[in-house]
């Protein structure tokens, strides 16, 4: 089964860095409020989903979304993230665990922990921490030295 | 009878700048089967279009950009662009491989290859948007750095545009100017000067068409297996994606003070260790379709600039080999080289050579007015890089590049020039790694090189990434370099030819695992054959794959034969002090024995090093034999100037 992507990658070319834009499933969603025919509602996973039988294609939701998370670009109907019915495909394929799917309270706790550990949020998070990058590189070098030691195995 | 190719293969775009004419040609499936794509297509085009010795900076030279069979697909790491030309640095085949997005974009626009010939009267750039191809004025762009060029083109054509082009060094015909892709990805060996000589600043491309494998289910199934492999691999997650090619600083003995001391991990100076460099890192980035992300994004507090991909090569060549250990200075130099569009290795090695010749008194004070050439002077080196890019004063000579530069100072200077066929790569004892190391520099079809087969021949990095893979390859018949160095090297060369032709990354840390898709599961080229069949709809066996790589390699050798390459040019250089020793003489003897064996097993004449007719006919390229058979070619001595 193939379907249209609901994530847009925005690239900030001068620094070769990208951010993903996708629906945040807002608590009080603008898209839901503006829809004149009540085609947008929350499903059991908390995702806002569009009922295409009701949708009249007015684009109001796309204009209303403050994050640009609803697109009309590829089809003449709104396309947005529906959390893949509780098993998001993007989370499954992301090789670097950059996207995780978890319960809201747990997510808040994780975020707090990461901040305390000094995790860099990259260019968009504002604060770059040289100490954090250095530490990660030191760990990599240490692991590499271990591997080098062990690689005598093949006698090369 | 040839049939037109499937929709997975686009066409070739031929741009004649003299006549401002654009022609499109379909790629036949037969050509795909015989030359795969990328480097294979390029090398064939160069052989067919450059009949003999010409000045690489004349309009007759050809610039070929090939994107590789699998570009733009989900098969990981397959969007490297191959750039080939007659090199103004060496005067033989000069090709390079650059990452970024260009290769995928070109494929999405419907092309396999772009061939540029002639010379425009005024600066031009080419804009490609799917079927539309326009040659446009670039007077406003001339003089801009690579970063400014890309920004200008993005303003003009939108952010999606991907750009290959040159900076000021290419315009000023610096002989080691590179083709730069999307600001930060560089393809070497002087191709930048060829763009400059053609008055071509850049090619900008937007592609919106998809790529459709002949058997999508099969192809994507195999591709997914390969992605999953890398995502699960510990080495990738814990080392590769964290320090990228800085791995080499620990593993590859970066050289100190013009190749005088190879530095072990313990000897690495503070300032040039991976952890020191990491302090400048603010993010990581990668080429299209790569799950590894070997490239760092760094921030330079002193200038407020961002740069990308501070690789091992730039750190050793601009840093340790010149005794510069100031982290930020080295990163800044790397970034300047990207912005001006110069190859960091030739740049750094040539500066180090100049320092040495100065120290030895071969370069006199008068030659280098106003410059101290002290080892380790970072500030001065930053100035030198700029002067070289603009060919100012004495640095005009440095811009000639490594061997051409040494040649200006006669035999004394050439004695310290560690090149093969005009390309620098330091010096190594033949005894090292059973002769493979030096042999691989000698047999590379683009001059001394570490990306033509070397590391692959002795599993330099694979044994750390996944030792089981090495075992599997040996079981599947890969020669063991400890018993059969020549056989191992030929296999290594095949792997690299294959990677460059498929568009696959050879792995910025040089590994079989990256260069050859699915090698961890179907050694050695079986997985590739399966992928090629699924993607093109043409039946490929493992033997077809091997034959294609040999066809490409021998075509390249024949190309160089016509540029005057003889057996004697398979030599390797030692510093004069070492060359005089018995040890060195014994080692050279061994080197030449290996060369003979190599030529024999490659199907070349052992006396002349020309590919033999039977070999070429056996690969179904008898026409190549017609071109070189029974002909005399004047001996190579660097690039030809003016009309030959
Ligand atoms: S589309 Fe926009 S407004 Fe609607 S739920 Fe998502 S983020 Fe909120
Ligand atoms: S490993 Fe590095 S060079 Fe190779 S494709 Fe990935 S990002 Fe590009």
Summarize this entry quickly:
The complex is a heterodimer of chains A (156) and B (644). Chain A is α+β, with helices and mostly antiparallel strands.
Question: Structural class, from helix and strand content of chain A?
Answer: alpha+beta
CATH class (first level) name of the largest domain in chain A: Alpha Beta
CATH topology of the largest domain in chain A: Alpha-Beta Plaits
Strand content of chain B: 5-15%
Percent strand of chain A equals 5-15%
Profile the largest sheet of chain B: 6 strands, mixed
Mean pLDDT rating of chain A? 80
Structure description:
- The complex is a heterodimer of chains A (156) and B (644).
- Chain A has helices at 30-34, 60-64, 89-93, 104-116, 122-125, 130-150, and strands at 8-12, 17-21, 40-42, 48-50.
- Chain A is α+β, with helices and mostly antiparallel strands and 156 residues long.
- Chain A contains 6 helices and 4 strands.
- The radius of gyration of chain A is 21 Å and the shape is elongated.
- Chain A folds into 2 domains: 7-85, Alpha-Beta Plaits (2-Layer Sandwich), CATH 3.30.70.20; 102-151, no CATH class.
- With 644 residues, chain B is an alpha+beta fold.
- Chain B folds into 3 domains: 11-206, Aldehyde ferredoxin oxidoreductase, N-terminal domain (Aldehyde Ferredoxin Oxidoreductase,  A, domain 1, 4-Layer Sandwich), CATH 3.60.9.10; 233-424, Aldehyde Ferredoxin Oxidoreductase Protein, subunit A, domain 2 (Orthogonal Bundle); 432-628, Aldehyde Ferredoxin Oxidoreductase Protein, subunit A, domain 3.
- Chain B has 29 helices and 19 strands.
- In chain B, α18 packs across α27 (582-602).
- Chain B is globular and about 65 Å long.
- The chains are: A alpha+beta (156), B alpha+beta (644).
- At the A-B interface, α6 of A face α4, α7, α8, α9 and α10 of B.
- One iron/sulfur cluster (SF4) binds at residues 23-26, 29-31, 48, 65, 67, 69-70, 80 of chain A.
- The site of one iron/sulfur cluster has 13 residues of chain A, from α1.
